[in-house]
Write a structure and sequence with these properties.
6 helices, about 30% strand, about 210 residues, globular, six-stranded mixed beta sheet, 14 strands, alpha/beta
Amino acid sequence: MKVKNIIVSVCATNCYVAYNEKTLEGLIIDPGDEATRIMDEITKLQVKPVAILLTHGHFDHAGASEELADHYDIQIYAAGAESGTLINSRINLSDWLGTPTEYRADVLLKDEQELELAGFKFRMLLTPGHTTGGCCYYFPYEGTVFTGDSLFCGSIGRTDFIGGSMSQLVNSVKEKLMILPGDTICYPGHNEPTTIEEERVYNPYLV
């Protein structure tokens, strides 16, 4: 797996293009804004997107998803528990932009549901606490997990938005992510990558 990070939106969100080096099929993860720039980067990579994965429904992670899905004729995947966030502009925070928006998901996933896309086998891990249906995508054969705003390098996501809960998020991260192999690379929704072992040792929220 190759991972291209494209930092987008006013929130400096990490949009990832994770692609298969053999087939050049790829997954777009959390396209929060700047659809045209994301398309340009994908063209440079010569990657064919096959799906969009949303870790949660906030505007800075979902904002460009529908435009990209329509452009590439692909589907948007998200946790079923996040459907209420996606369609409510007050909860998905698009109200902040002055352009209240409903975001769509074409495929709603259950916790621990396994998928096979772009030649990768992976599963969705439900990690509520930042939002009601926040989730991560774990690729065991690639030793990689995309953690959205659930887990950051040395921190965890904010819990002061509607649907947030500090205790729930800490439990989610401990129960779903800290049990992964220590050398698993974590690609978060903001800031730099980390590993599970680094977070076990250094993350002050998880001691």
